[in-house]
Specification:
2 domains; Alpha-Beta Plaits; four-stranded antiparallel beta sheet; Aminopeptidase; about 450 residues
Amino acid sequence: MTDPTGEVTELLQNLIRNRCVNQGTPESGEEVRNVDLLTTYLEGAGLDIQRYEPLPGRVSMVSRIEGSDPRAPSLCLMGHIDVVPVNPDGWERDPFGGELVDGVVWGRGAVDMLNTTSSMAVAFKHLAKQGFKPRGDLVFFAAADEEALGKHGAQWMTENEPDAVRTDYCITEFGGMRFPIPAAGGPKLPVMVGEKGTYWCTIRVHGTPGHASMPLRTDNALVTAAEVVRRIAEFQPKTEIHDVWRAFVERMQFPEDMAKALLDPEAFQQLSENLPIGLARMLSACTHTTFAPTIMHGGVKTNVIPDTVDLQVDIRTLPGYSGDDVRAQLKEALGDLSDKVTIVADSDSPSNASKMDTPLWDTLRKVTRALVPDSDTVPFLIVGATDARFMRNIGAVSYGYGLLSERIPFNEFAQMFHGDNERVDQESLRLSTELWEATAIEFLAG
């Protein structure tokens, strides 16, 4: 293919500038702006483009290059088009400026995941313009609402319009970064074969109202809530060596002493304390059910002792965990305060994964080696939620992948997700675009 760098850079910049910020409310997101942009971009390539709008402004789009053999495997390239909110005070540049500075594009979504969506769109358009004739269908799916667990995006599509997105295989976010850990051979690039479960809940802390001018021995729900937050933040679930983690460690070909430590729950904890923070956070999250207090609401007036405080907690579960298991862990963490709260589940989606020994895995490995010499692919468990779980629900083997250069160090990259100064380099954009095109040709045209 011709060098796609300029084309994918410009598309990414414009997706960022459209500010499709998902606040988690039904009316936020306004993904219609990015669907309009992608529709305009893909027009002229002879593609049929379908739009789906479950709520005003919450639009997803699907385009399909039909295959010649209905029995051949089909592939979906899926990217979401919404981004999370941002506090510009912590940024060096305008979060929605889409600025290109010294070969790096800055902006909210540059990593999560407008970089992947834009590179998929460019590869898809190039294939269409070249008259690509696959044996199996190739689908490009730009999904709304991923940043609020997909209710009005991939979940809605798979439940209401499943045939529009149904394929045998699917690739979405994210992977292909270079782990800064010594290992034998060339670069080991992670493919996300599964993801942790999501248990979002509201912990309602109860107290007794009273006049705030007389606080002695009051039952202040806000004071209790502060202790609830502290106990949850300090709670240390055990390290668990699950199947995907074991496969990751074994295929990374670490030095024997490091591999042994990574597979030993007690030694792992000590090892992670000495790793760079970005890497430590990711590896720890991959081997623990995690609890993160994120939002608190309480009180009605300055001079009224609060009788109710709502604390929202983001809990990500390892394979095999149920909602009952999570509630048991919360009870353990809260101890004698567990009787002072009510736990309401806002979302309960268990961990899920796809098998690794598939034709798509073999294709990704082969294509990656052509683009990154001496490299190999290794399985990993993504620690957040993605739309892959909805595609798995309708039968698709789903992986998270991409290709990233070594321009931005891993430790910085790992802290950009939902963080400050999100950015991606143009070499990574080029690599990912070439990856998708080569994968489609190798997997579908053979």
